[in-house]
Every structure is written in C-alpha cells, then in structure tokens.
From TrEMBL:
<dbReference type="GO" id="GO:0006099">
    <property type="term" value="P:tricarboxylic acid cycle"/>
</dbReference>
<keyword id="KW-0436">Ligase</keyword>
<keyword id="KW-0547">Nucleotide-binding</keyword>
<dbReference type="GO" id="GO:0004775">
    <property type="term" value="F:succinate-CoA ligase (ADP-forming) activity"/>
</dbReference>
<dbReference type="InterPro" id="IPR013815">
    <property type="entry name" value="ATP_grasp_subdomain_1"/>
</dbReference>
<dbReference type="InterPro" id="IPR011761">
    <property type="entry name" value="ATP-grasp"/>
</dbReference>
<dbReference type="GO" id="GO:0046872">
    <property type="term" value="F:metal ion binding"/>
</dbReference>
<dbReference type="GO" id="GO:0005829">
    <property type="term" value="C:cytosol"/>
</dbReference>
<dbReference type="GO" id="GO:0005524">
    <property type="term" value="F:ATP binding"/>
</dbReference>
<dbReference type="GO" id="GO:0006104">
    <property type="term" value="P:succinyl-CoA metabolic process"/>
</dbReference>
<protein>
    <submittedName>
        <fullName>Succinate--CoA ligase subunit beta</fullName>
        <ecNumber>6.2.1.5</ecNumber>
    </submittedName>
</protein>
<keyword id="KW-0067">ATP-binding</keyword>
<dbReference type="GO" id="GO:0042709">
    <property type="term" value="C:succinate-CoA ligase complex"/>
</dbReference>
<feature type="domain" description="ATP-grasp">
    <location>
        <begin position="9"/>
        <end position="55"/>
    </location>
</feature>
<dbReference type="Pfam" id="PF08442">
    <property type="entry name" value="ATP-grasp_2"/>
</dbReference>
<dbReference type="InterPro" id="IPR013650">
    <property type="entry name" value="ATP-grasp_succ-CoA_synth-type"/>
</dbReference>
C-alpha cells in the first residue's frame, strides 16, 4: 500500500506525533482555503505523487503570499512531475499538500518499506535528512540505520 505525504501526516496527528499544520488540496480553491486557514506565510505547496525526489523535480515550493499559492497551485495541479523515481514519463499531479513553512532546526529521514526477501517491514532511518538520502547511503552509509 502506498500513501501520500498528507495521508501519512494525518496518521501521525491521530497518534499525536507532531507535524506541521496543513491539509490536502485537490483544486486551486482548496489550496487557497488551506492557506487561509493556516493564516501566516510562508506556506509550502507540495505535489503529492507516489515518488521521491519531488523537491528536486520542482514539486515542492515556498509561497510567500496568497497570490503565490494560487499561481503555484494552478501550475502544479495537472502537471507531469518527473523525478529520478518516476522515470522520464513522470506522474501527473492531482493533489497538493499545503502546510506551514517552518524554520527547520534538524531534518531527519524515516522510511518503512516492505522487504520482499524476508516478507517483513524494513525500517530505514538517518539523522542526515531526506533530500539527498540516496547520496547519503552511497557516500556515508554509516549514517543510515
């Protein structure tokens, strides 16, 4: 089963794990409504597809105003986002996550994925953050547990 970031964060909230405030948007109007509800800028506009590398592919942007949220949502919804995990065909963006822009003190990486060889769940974690986790794994494997 694959879930989007916004769905994972809803699960985290359910179990009182702190995450930035925000919510999903399937239309430009919904993106504006979520940004209005947050009440402060910047906000982050994140494409929701089942693939990593969204930030590097242009699918994660900061918006400093309501007008920027509108422009970003108009541009992202319906676009084909190409990342290193999608292949050249990319994936169409039909959902966005709009959330608070926060000052990041420390970025961590955590992934749970099926290990088909053992038929168990593998947990991968790193204090080196997530934007370049593949590079961390290749260049500093000791930082991956």
């Amino acid at each position: 089963m694959k879930i989007h970031e916004y769905q994972a964060k809803e699960l985290f909230r359910k179990f009182q794990i702190p995450v930035p405030e925000g919510g999903p948007a399937f239309t430009v109007d919904e993106a504006l409504n979520v940004a209005d509800r947050l009440g402060a800028y910047p906000v982050v506009v994140k494409a929701q597809i089942h693939a990593g590398g969204r930030g590097k592919g242009g699918g994660v942007k900061l918006a400093a105003s309501r007008d920027e949220v509108k422009t970003l949502a108009e541009n992202m919804l319906g676009m084909t986002l190409v990342t290193h995990q999608t292949g050249p065909q990319g994936k169409q963006v039909n959902k966005l996550l709009i959330e608070q822009g926060l000052n990041i003190q420390k970025e961590l990486y955590l992934s749970l994925l099926p290990d088909r060889a053992t038929a168990k769940i593998a947990i991968i974690a790193s204090e080196a953050g997530g934007m370049d986790i593949e590079a961390v794994a290749a260049e500093q494997p000791e930082k991956i547990i």
